[in-house]
Design a protein that fits this description.
Shape: elongated
Number of strands: 13
Strand content: 35-45%
Number of helices: 3
Distance between the termini: 61 Å
Helix content: 10-25%
Structural class: alpha+beta
Strand order of the largest sheet: 11-12-7-13
Largest sheet: 4 strands, antiparallel
């Protein structure tokens, strides 16, 4: 019988900072910190999650193959990112790049929506909605810069991706037409203040 080699037991523990509270119910992890709560469901992964001590989570996988064992570290990374989000927050900075036509960005709906005008001189207005819990604002110091703030790294990075993808150049050589809005820096909010 050709069998895949199984690892009997793989385990990893992630310890969160003191000002972060964590709850585990089934495979749903809730993290609460100074910036608010975050909740994530790991129900699609067949792993065992248990709370150890005041603010540690233990991830166990029994009889897993190579791909299953990779999930153990991934979940730990996700929980760490949640803890960073509720303590420091995530900040992505984006810069407008243009050769000729200046890209005009207008933030509406109290930072929940952005309108992009005059991209490559087009009359079409690109409207991008931010993901839940993400606020976009123009940079006060730097021209042609946008700042995206939020607690959930996935929602912040996804919002940045939506903005970047809205300004894709069609039917041109993209090595020559480099216009667009690109992520220039990934950082946390707390360090900047």
């Amino acid at each position: 019988v050709t069998g895949i080699m199984k690892n009997i037991h793989s385990s990893q523990t992630v310890t969160l900072p003191d000002d972060v509270n964590v709850w585990v119910k089934g495979r749903i992890v809730t993290v609460r910190g100074p910036r608010g709560p975050l909740k994530k469901n790991f129900g699609h992964l067949k792993v065992e999650l248990t709370k150890v001590g005041k603010n540690s989570v233990k991830v166990d996988k029994w009889f897993g193959n190579r791909k299953d064992l990779a999930c153990v570290r991934t979940i730990c990374s996700h929980i760490k990112n949640m803890a960073t989000g509720v303590t420091k927050g995530y900040r992505y900075k984006m810069r407008s790049v243009y050769a000729h036509f200046p890209i005009n960005c207008n933030v509406t709906n109290e930072g929940e929506k952005i309108e992009i005008r005059n991209f490559l001189g087009e009359k079409f207005v690109r409207r991008v909605d931010m993901r839940h819990g993400v606020i976009v604002k123009p940079s006060p110091k730097q021209k042609d810069e946008l700042i995206l703030d939020g607690n959930d790294i996935e929602q912040v990075s996804l919002s940045a991706a939506l903005i970047q993808q809205s300004t894709t150049v069609k039917r041109k050589d993209i090595r020559k037409f480099l216009d667009g809005i690109y992520v220039s820096q990934k950082t946390t909010i707390a360090e900047d203040e």
